[in-house]
Amino acid sequence: MFEQVNKFAPFLLMFVVIYFFMIRPQQKKAKQEKAFESTLKVGDRIITKSGLHGKVSELAETTVVVETMSGKLKMERSAISMEMSASLAKK
């Protein structure tokens, strides 16, 4: 019986390593981004993941209207970059 456990130990160890170095950090980041999306408010200056700069002018459940220099754009909340918007807020 010990030999059978010994055969599967490397696979189990590999799964544990993959979980802690790849899966868990990705889940943590997704949770942070969801929290960021829920804390958006009208007037916040943001940067989208595609690089557009603007200010939030309207909020809906899953969408946001962003006012840019060239007009207003409606986009999904998930299109807003948490990292770039946070660095913009620090300036």
State Rg: 21 Å
The shape, in one word, is: rod-shaped
Estimate the strand proportion. Answer: 15-25%
- Please describe the biggest sheet, giving its number of strands, its sense, and whether it closes into a barrel: 4 strands, antiparallel
- Compute the average pLDDT: 91
Low-confidence stretches: none
Number of strands: 4
Q: Kindly name the structural category.
A: alpha+beta
Estimate percent helicity: 40-55%
Element string (H = helix, E = strand): HEEEEH
Give the end-to-end Cα distance, rounded to a whole number of Å: 62 Å
Please state how the strands of the largest beta sheet are arranged side by side. 1-2-3-4
Counted by DSSP, the helix tally is 2
Written overview of the protein:
With 91 residues, the chain is an alpha+beta fold. The protein contains two helices and four strands; from the N terminus they run H-E-E-E-E-H. It has helices at 2-38, 82-90, and strands spanning 45-47, 53-59, 63-68, 71-76. It has a four-stranded antiparallel beta sheet with strand order 1-2-3-4. A hairpin with a 2-residue loop joins strand 3 (63-68) and strand 4. The chain is rod-shaped. The termini are far apart.
Describe the SSE topology.
Blueprint: H1 2-38, E1 45-47, E2 53-59, E3 63-68, E4 71-76, H2 82-90
Antiparallel strand pairs: 1-2, 2-3, 3-4
